[in-house]
Design brief:
Blueprint (H helix, E strand, L loop, with lengths): L4 E7 L9 H9 L3 H9 L3 E3 L2 E2 L11 E7 L16 E5 L3 E6 L16 H7 L24 E7 L2 H12 L4 E9 L6 E5 L2 E3 L7 E3 L7 E9 L3 E8 L6 H8 L14 H7 L6 E9 L6 E5 L4 H12 L2
Helix pairs in contact: 1-2
């Protein structure tokens, strides 16, 4: 991604004689001292044609040349068609999509890859304007590394109805997960609060002071190295299934962040967790009908499952 930058040249006025370069730049260019110091460190500042250190002093009449890269807003929605996003259903009030792996739902700091919101804007969908600007119309989320079915609100009415439905847990969210080993019992409920991991802020963990989190699971297939589970979520915490399965000592196959075996991940050819949102059921915000949408396993998960089924 090329960043546009602005070239500025100013002459040091008498009033700033003897000031440090970073302080003088902050005054002359309207930058913060920190930003000015960063630009100096990055070699983007020249004084009378020479490189400078931030604590060098300036003399009146000296010429400051500064290259200021324009900062890109990490939350800006960039309209772009994302290959692999499938539209399962589209009407006046909602759009239901099949999200591929590697796509975030909306922009966030630290993520510069494709997003669902960017795709919908790029494809000409009008989505609800409720919610923060980068999350407009978003009533639910799936992790970047999780694929499957999700709904986005197009009308303001649909946004408030669906937001409420998710909040009151009346949406039926069904996932399939391939987990290591065999959960005992074969079906059960994990009721364990989840909070941010105390040591790694990109992870979550079962924490006494976390938010209430409830996961119901049942075993569909048990194989030598792994079991295929059907999972229903009561709550929708970030990474909930991954954290709960890891807490049971049965992490999702391929989920290296939460303790999966890297050898098994390589053996089944996975570079992400085996977790897929297969079904979403809710009351349609306009018609009031009960609707249900499904998504089949993507190629990487289907292939990994075959390897597990064939392993003796």
């Amino acid at each position: 991604m090329t960043q546009a930058s602005e070239q500025r040249t100013l002459t040091v006025p008498d009033g700033l004689a003897g000031e440090r370069v970073d302080a003088a730049m902050a005054r002359m260019f309207g930058l913060s001292r920190t930003r000015a110091a960063d630009l100096i460190v990055e070699g983007l500042v020249r004084l009378d044609g020479h490189d400078v250190g931030k604590s060098d002093r300036v003399l009146p009449g000296a010429v400051l040349d500064v290259t200021i890269p324009s900062t890109v807003d990490p939350l800006e929605v960039v309209p772009e068609i994302v290959e692999g996003i499938k539209i399962i259903h589209d009407d006046e009030s909602i759009v239901v999509i099949d999200k591929p792996v590697g796509v975030a739902v909306h922009p966030s700091p630290g993520w510069n890859g494709p997003t669902v919101v960017g795709h919908l804007v790029g494809a000409g969908f009008r989505i609800a304007t409720s919610g923060a600007s980068e999350r407009q119309g978003i009533v639910q989320r799936l992790d970047v590394g999780t694929s499957g079915v999700m709904v986005i609100a197009k009308s303001e009415h649909a946004y408030s109805v669906l937001k409420n439905a998710f909040r009151h847990r009346t949406v039926d969210k069904t996932y399939h997960a391939l987990v290591q080993g065999h959960p005992d019992p074969l079906q059960g409920t994990v009721d364990a609060p989840i909070g941010r991991h105390p040591k790694h802020d990109y992870k979550f963990a079962v924490m006494a002071d976390g938010r209430a989190s409830v996961t119901h699971y049942e075993t569909l297939e048990a194989h030598r190295f792994a079991s295929l589970l059907e999972i229903h979520l009561e709550t929708g915490r970030t990474h909930q299934i991954r954290v709960h399965m890891s807490a049971l000592k049965h992490p999702c196959v391929g989920d290296l962040t939460y303790g999966a075996d890297p050898k098994l991940a390589r053996r089944v050819g996975l570079e992400r967790q085996w977790l897929h949102a297969v079904k979403l059921g809710f009351t349609h915000p306009d018609s009031g009908d009960e609707v249900e949408y499904e998504s089949t396993y993507p190629d990487d998960l289907a292939a990994a499952l075959e390897v597990i089924r064939d392993a003796h």
